[in-house]
Known about the structure:
Strand content: 5-15%
Shape: elongated
Oligomer: single chain
Number of strands: 2
Amino acid sequence: AYLELDPRDFNVAEEWQKENLKIRSKAQAKMLEMRNPQAHLPTSQSLLFVQKIFADVSKEIKAAANTEKKVEKAGYGYSKRV
């Protein structure tokens, strides 16, 4: 089960979408960096790189989740999807 913000209930929907886009574009930029043929990394190093990306992205997701909690506390509507 996961919780998802319902944009119809929010004045902050736009801000939320911008955050999501920021997270996604950062991840994509890093993936492109990885695929860059000039970056000839040994396997062990590229694995570390992947782990670093995942760590960074999950940090961003946690930050976004904290934003969700703050918004929920502010008394906005919240939709639960299971």
